[in-house]
């Protein structure tokens, strides 16, 4: 893995590897010294062309917990507002010696452009591009779901996937990169996804996505669901009227107090309510739902740091030298080499 | 999961199951003797093979001293993130760090690993311990000391000193983590270098 650009092409093996690593990283948050020296001397640049609080802070916290140096770059107040191109910005960062670039951009595909060109030779992490993908958000959502799912089943979460879990993603799918990334990742991990939205807020071609589509939230609830993911209504991206009024939207597609009670009436006592934030309380989610014990909103934020630590660690810790000169003895028994007999090591038994 | 089927490399078994068992029994008693009993004792195994060795040692210590509960003195200490060769090796997935509930502050921590070689793993372990707390004493117990130290580090309890050439490889197979030809085994093998 050189870059983390999308969840669509992320293999199941790599996805589970990131989630398992995040599981180990999450223990660091409970320690007295919340820091690991793994990325000492590496530089991570947060390149944000679009407003963000939690994603940027989360990446910054993750990089700092791994002892990397962090440079924050916000397009506002930088040379970008003077008309500097993405290429020039990237080359400037390359000249400063950035090892990883965490990029959020309003244009879909900007991180791919950065990764595919020779403008900069750093690991590129997509922190949200336009209405395309937001892979670390999907990974932290999957991490939150996997912990919940394995607690329910009473198994260890390490190494597990989400087979059999029923997930409903509700709301503004059209403008949501979170929804796209989640659909691909949850498919890879084996969950059953249903998108619930008004027809105007579903993208063209959604029938080819690996998920079910419904226009009726109450029917989806009655069919049974293990995780409800409410999406933010992205007013700032709406250039036309997609629904008649906020009140009507809230009544039909919002998770209000009546639907919160309906979960109990339907016997869905273990269903969790997720939201990627920031929440429009009273629009897509009611305050009672957001603050209920079912809500995982704050757990998602907490898990976000662990998942981003895992991604940065896996992208940045490998062998970075160009031609590896083999000097000195290798650490004892580290690498498997020729043996006279066939030797099999059990998979990380003790890490469970 | 590492599956290796390769050309014949001359190898010889230097410790078999009974040898390993005797060495661990002796180390368990040495630990109790050096500590003048089991007070404040914590055994931290370094993944992967140090941890099963720590569990075995704890059982032997509990057998010798009935006041010890084997399950509550053992922990696992992952040192991956503290290694000095992270940017020179392929990415290593981190393992789990699990401390006994009593923590390690003011305890006598015995680090346990399978092979002591360059000493770099132990240096990383000492750094990892510093971030977790402040033990009163840290000691080191290893199953095999094969020499070739690159750092000023010495083991307090050694199962077997094995003078080796640096081109040779020392492999520890434990039934908890390894199978050879499909069967779980307990042995220490020296392989001739390429």
What is this entry, summarized?
Chain A has helices at residues 12-26, 54-65, 86-95, 110-116, 135-153, 177-189, 217-223, 246-253, 257-265, 287-290, 297-316; strands at 43-48, 69-74, 100-105, 123-129, 166-170, 192-196, 212-214, 227-230, 272-274, 343-345. Chain A has 352 residues and is α/β, with parallel strands linked by helices.
Describe this structure in words.
- The complex is a heterodimer of chains A (352) and B (194).
- Chain A is of the alpha/beta class and 352 residues long.
- Chain A has 11 helices and 10 strands.
- The two termini of chain A are 24 Å apart.
- Chain B has one domain (16-84, 94-165): Rossmann fold (3-Layer(aba) Sandwich), CATH 3.40.50.2020.
- Chain B has helices spanning 17-34, 50-64, 70-73, 120-132, and strands at 3-4, 11-15, 41-45, 74-76, 108-116, 137-145, 157-161, 169-173, 178-180, 183-184, 187-191.
- In chain B, helix 1 (17-34) packs across helix 2 (50-64).
- The longest helix of chain B is centred in the N-terminal third of the chain and has 18 residues, at 17-34.
- At the A-B interface, helix 1 and strand 10 of A face strand 1, strand 5, helix 4, strand 8 and strand 9 of B.
- Strand 10 of chain A pairs antiparallel with strand 9 (178-180) of chain B.
Summarize the SSE layout with pairings.
The complex is a heterodimer of chains A (352) and B (194).
Chain A: H1 12-26, E1 43-48, H2 54-65, E2 69-74, H3 86-95, E3 100-105, H4 110-116, E4 123-129, H5 135-153, E5 166-170, H6 177-189, E6 192-196, E7 212-214, H7 217-223, E8 227-230, H8 246-253, H9 257-265, E9 272-274, H10 287-290, H11 297-316, E10 343-345
Parallel strand pairs in A: 1-2, 1-3, 3-4, 5-6, 5-8, 6-7, 8-9
Chain B: E1 3-4, E2 11-15, H1 17-34, E3 41-45, H2 50-64, H3 70-73, E4 74-76, E5 108-116, H4 120-132, E6 137-145, E7 157-161, E8 169-173, E9 178-180, E10 183-184, E11 187-191
